[in-house]
Amino acid sequence: MSEKSILGHGKIIEFLNKAIKQGTLSHAYLFVGMDSVGKTTVAEWFIETLINNNVGNGLKPLSTTHPDVFILERLVDEKGKEKNVITVEQVRELRHQLSLSSFLGGYKIAFLKEAAYLNTQSSNALLKILEEPPEKTIFILRARNTKELPATIVSRCQVLRFSLVSQSLIEQALEKEGIESKEAHLISRLCQGMVGIAFSFIENKNAWQDYQESFFQFIDLLKSAPYKRFSLLLQKLPKDELNQKAQALEILDQWESFLRDIILTRVGVSELQRNDFSGTGIETSISSFPVVIWKQALDCLRYVRQMISQNANPLLGLERIVLSLPVIKI
């Protein structure tokens, strides 16, 4: 993978390239930022670069097995469902693998794609490895923010913060993929700097439809009495508790976008909106509530997201948010 194929994050790539060339690599990096912003893409480039520098040939894709690259993520049970944590046994097995000699004589790399799913036991086991890392071993941890991990682990990592990618870069990339200018502009505006979402709209035709459904479901929430909102939530969250956390976090990302645009509309800067409320029937009603009401709802959402990231009950968190939203009467 060429670094030129990565959208945005130029300073992070420059920093990592410099560390590679000068031999000043940290033993552990923590990539933090919104989902779909490019953390995994940069991690894959970083891993390929490290391996290629050592052995002089191409790295197999991370979806296949490479003898010196270890991907740590949640296991799947016999029913095909992801487990809710990364277990201490997984971390202990990782420690054993890293204690062995490098197959190709270079770096051994551990990529924790879902570091937020470490529990207390597995976190403690990982901490022991980070405190005394094997020689020529590099850890890459991926998370939404540092609060998802114990402070002891964060303190032993070089934290790299991923910002949102600019709309113009995403729009240009979409046009290069053959997307018409008007559609590229709309998608780049909607994806809010999360490039992965932009390309998911292209690769998955249902993704755009799902997004539109989420938007109108949010409008329905605003129009509904509080007691009706609970039933709407139950329809939206999966019954499987193990997948509720991921689904709830995805919902919160969408709701944050909608609330942000409502606030922009309310303060008279609708040109910065990413979502179009025209035709929904709530444009006038939005203005009947002071900005502080919408801001309180947004603050509540961000607090709940933090709590859910720390394994609070997703349904209870979402219920708290919908109760904070004003009721729009049409």
From TrEMBL:
Q: Which residues form a coiled coil?
A: none
List the GO biological process terms: DNA-templated DNA replication
Source species, domain of life: Bacteria
InterPro entries the record matches: DNA_Rep/Repair_Clamp_Loader (IPR050238), P-loop_NTPase (IPR027417)
Protein name, UniProt field: DNA polymerase III subunit delta
Organism for this UniProt entry: Candidatus Uhrbacteria bacterium CG_4_9_14_3_um_filter_36_7
